[in-house]
Q: What sequence folds into this?
């Protein structure tokens, strides 16, 4: 529609696929350069990569090129089919997640007229990555890979519950599962009758956001929840036997998933592609919206990686106890309070 052209279904499908790839790879690459290469370097009083491109800006492309040239090694005892399939399953879950994320009033890959349960879909699809992780650990025929996969599965299942429960408060307050309508609810909402800045749910669902961020850190297996891939514990985790392209896919999947969760958090709690004072239905928001959303994603990404390089690792029993005995009860309290306040006000 933006080009004024009538496109066939297969042409629209190609454009949507390319758009999803761009939505996945651009934030992932930005996160790697800004946070992994530069922010952590400054935190540790060093410069980080400086040789490949201006200020090391081409270092990521150099790393990708190096990974693609490496030999694709498959262990002799491995289940070759499952071993090769696992990294693609992990990356596919990220691609499927971005399908329902709105980037503007008309910038969404699936028409919400036919798909109005976006957040339910996101929570369901994000849990599929556990299958890829278990396949990688089991098919590698390595005790370290299997141990890392079992740890990852236990951790992801434990923290999937508070992640889902933290979102329910937003759904109750917005009255919809549709991510686009959640953005509109924040933009058109009021705070005690004052609607100058709308009603971003970070104000009323701060506890939900806190739970979401903690669970997101665990879902990404980032420090302090990195026991599944702890080098000093299990050498490298479920992907220790992978090389070349398939290891690169796991690496991309890690940072792309961080970008996807940051996009969901920005949409649920910070108004997504909208900012106060901007017209929700204006065409320019289809251009400005993705930039606004990316900026909000960078805020959440900065928090994720700051915590990763700041806090010490939790033991397996500590992180499980934290999920089941603290986060889940707190999330249930938040849901109850939100429901009561929704009825009263």
A:
């Amino acid at each position: 529609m933006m080009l004024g052209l009538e496109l066939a279904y297969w042409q629209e499908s190609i454009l949507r696929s390319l758009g999803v790839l761009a939505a996945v790879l651009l934030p992932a690459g930005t996160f790697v350069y800004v946070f992994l290469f530069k922010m952590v370097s400054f935190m540790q009083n060093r410069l980080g990569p400086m040789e490949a491109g201006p200020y090391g800006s081409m270092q990521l492309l150099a790393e990708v090129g190096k990974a693609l040239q490496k030999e694709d090694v498959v262990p002799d005892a491995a289940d070759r089919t499952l071993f090769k399939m696992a990294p693609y399953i992990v990356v596919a879950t990220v691609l499927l997640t971005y399908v329902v994320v709105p980037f503007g009033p008309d910038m969404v890959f699936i028409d919400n007229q036919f798909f109005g349960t976006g957040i339910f879909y996101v929570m369901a699809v994000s849990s599929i990555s556990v299958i890829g992780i278990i396949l990688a650990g089991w098919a590698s025929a390595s005790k370290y890979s299997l141990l890392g996969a079992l740890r990852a599965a236990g951790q992801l299942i434990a923290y999937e519950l508070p992640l889902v429960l933290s979102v329910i408060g937003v759904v109750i307050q917005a009255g919809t599962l549709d991510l686009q309508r959640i953005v509109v609810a924040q933009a058109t909402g009021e705070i005690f009758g004052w609607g100058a800045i709308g009603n971003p749910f970070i104000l009323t669902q701060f506890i939900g956001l806190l739970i979401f961020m903690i669970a997101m850190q665990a879902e990404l297996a980032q420090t302090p929840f990195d026991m599944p891939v702890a080098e000093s514990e299990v050498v490298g985790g479920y992907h220790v036997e992978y090389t070349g392209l398939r290891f690169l896919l796991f690496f991309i999947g890690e940072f792309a998933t961080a970008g996807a969760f940051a996009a969901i958090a920005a949409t649920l709690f910070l108004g997504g592609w909208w900012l106060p004072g901007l017209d929700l239905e204006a065409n320019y928001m289809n251009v400005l919206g993705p930039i606004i959303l990316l900026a909000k994603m960078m805020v959440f990404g900065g928090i994720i990686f700051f915590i990763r390089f700041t806090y010490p690792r939790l033991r397996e029993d500590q992180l499980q106890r934290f999920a089941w005995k603290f986060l889940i009860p707190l999330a249930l309290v938040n849901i109850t309070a939100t429901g009561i306040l929704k009825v009263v006000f």
Observations:
- The chain has a mean pLDDT of 89.
- DSSP finds 13 helices and no strands in the chain.
- The radius of gyration is 21 Å.
